[in-house]
Specification:
Blueprint: H1 2-11, E1 27-33, H2 41-60, E2 69-75, H3 80-93, E3 98-100, H4 105-111, H5 113-118, E4 122-124, H6 131-134, E5 144-146, H7 151-165, E6 171-176, H8 179-194, E7 201-205, H9 213-221, E8 226-230, H10 233-245, E9 251-254, H11 261-271, E10 275-279, H12 287-299, H13 306-326, H14 331-338, E11 344-345, E12 350-351, E13 369-374, E14 377-380, H15 384-388, H16 391-394
Parallel strand pairs: 1-2, 1-3, 3-4, 4-5, 6-7, 6-8, 8-9, 9-10
Antiparallel strand pairs: 10-13, 11-12, 13-14
Helix pairs in contact: 2-13, 3-4, 7-8, 10-11, 13-14
Length: about 400
């Protein structure tokens, strides 16, 4: 496979070291994400498959620093206490060189202090809360990095489209009442303001609510022809179904969480197409994405939420590239090297100095595009409005 050949040029530090020596102990990468219990389990499972695929490719190319890389996987059950316990075990007991994870922003925010204090780099492949990479930005070394769709950046894309697509410039926001949804309301309101627009309505619903017709009826009464939806897959699906119930089908825009097949299963083939979403990648985005998708599905035919697999794959490659550049697994040196790595060919893109001292986000709004479900597959979406979006629109 092409991945292995290209990794050889960027990740392998010579295969002359004998793996049986004391210096050739396995290098451990940790993975910590929900894989069984919460609403993000599907995301965490897909992320794990991308993580494992990357490790397989690194080892096929000869390993890292002449040593084998092994993954140490932990399920955080979607809860902060378990996620904190996992991080402590991975760092203190397993002595991992770095961690990939988690899927939940709340879990990440609960344990950021642990890798920061222990000086172990973390590359976050799924969770999107802005604060994850900024809380320790003013420290001598920030150990938190990300290859995912940071909330503010994807909102910039959704709002840019909303402003172009709305005929009457009456744009509303509806979000779940969790911290995730409320942060989304704040971001969407602020970005709309930069475009000179005040939302005509802002409505909230509980994460367990299935009937959201009351809130949508209020939005409908304002005349809004465009609605920004901020919720994970099941919440967004219930919004779509409630729109259908009251025969109110405005232009609907949602975050990348609805790439989850849960959204598709809950809405069905026709209704699933109603929402347009932000995406970092889909399986039709380039040849590398198509290849990874096909390869992973041979072993995991039920794989969903491909973006999580791709982002985890790329996160793992970047961590490996930093270790190769640093020539060591010392956390402080690896974190510093992550701010210098370049020329790493991933699935989403080729990463040319994706991180700097001031910015630990590997992806930005320039890497994102709009997507939509069609025939059971999420793929790139284009229309007259996507083509009208300029870089200036995205930098609001």
């Amino acid at each position: 496979m092409k991945f292995a050949h290209k990794l050889a040029a960027t990740l392998v530090l010579g295969a002359s070291c004998a793996l049986g020596t004391a210096q050739a102990q396995d290098i451990k990468f940790g993975y910590n994400a929900d894989q069984s219990a919460g609403g993000t389990a599907e995301l965490g499972i897909a992320g794990r498959w991308g993580f494992e695929a990357a490790i397989e490719d690194i080892n096929k190319a000869g390993g890292l620093l002449g040593r084998k890389v092994v993954g140490v996987i932990r399920d955080d059950l979607g809860t902060p206490p378990k996620s904190i316990q996992n991080m402590t075990e991975l760092i203190d007991n397993e002595k991992v060189a770095g961690v990939i994870g988690p899927g939940n922003s709340g879990n990440a925010l609960a344990w950021l202090h642990i890798p920061q204090q222990r000086k172990v780099p973390v590359v976050v492949p799924i969770a999107t809360a802005t604060e994850i990479t900024t809380r320790y930005a003013n420290e001598a070394q920030n150990y938190l990095f990300r290859v995912s769709m940071v909330d503010r950046e994807q909102v910039s894309l959704l709002v840019a489209y909303a402003v172009k697509a709305s005929k009457n410039k009456k744009i509303a926001i509806i979000a779940d009442s969790t911290g995730y949804g409320q942060a989304g309301i704040k971001d969407a309101t602020e970005v709309l303001a930069q475009h000179g627009i005040t939302p005509v309505a802002i409505e909230k619903f509980g994460p367990k609510d299935t009937d959201i017709t009351s809130q949508l009826t209020k939005i409908k009464a304002t005349g809004a022809d465009t609605v920004i939806v901020y919720a994970i897959a099941d919440g967004a699906a219930n919004v779509a179904k409630s729109m259908e119930k009251i025969n109110y089908m405005p232009t609907a825009l949602a975050t990348w969480g609805i790439l989850s097949s849960l959204y598709y299963r809950m809405t069905g083939p026709k209704l699933s197409e109603h929402m347009i979403l932000a995406a970092s990648t889909t399986e039709d985005s380039n040849a590398r994405a198509k290849s990874l998708g096909e390869r992973v599905r041979k072993n995991f035919p039920t794989m969903t939420t491909f973006a999580c697999a791709a982002q985890s794959y790329d996160s793992t490659l970047l961590l490996a590239a930093a270790i190769k550049l640093a020539g060591t697994t010392d956390g402080e040196k690896v974190a510093a090297a992550l701010e210098k790595v370049t020329g790493v060919e991933g699935v989403i893109k080729t990463y040319n100095t994706p991180f700097t001292k001031a910015n630990h986000e590997g992806l930005s709004v320039d890497d994102f595009y709009l997507a939509r479900w069609k025939d059971g597959v999420a793929g790139r979406y284009e229309d007259e409005y996507t083509k009208a979006i300029t870089k200036a629109d995205l930098k609001k």
